[in-house]
Amino acid sequence: xxxxxxxxxxxxxxxxxxxxxxxxxRWRRRHWRRVVxxxxxxxxxxxxxxxxxxxxxxxxxxxxxxxxxxxxxxxxDVEDLVPGGPIRILVSPVDSRRCVIxx
Length: 103
Hints:
With about 100 residues, the chain is of the alpha+beta class. The chain contains one helix and five strands, in the order αβββββ.
């Protein structure tokens, strides 16, 4: 029985080492992140001004440039948004392509 104690201890440490990164990753990336993005384009969904105003933005995420198209902007005319200007967005903790405008 004494010969099994070191084997069980090593197996326990190996199991802990395998599970720990997944647990820490899930704990760390639980909340939506606030990011300042750059406006690439602002336009209406249809030709008339009564249509929904949409925005295309780009931002840096972990060293990569992400482009997100068609974010819905409530309560603002497209003419008020300057291409190249900053806008605050919320980025999903699961998929960085899922974003919403921080209003």
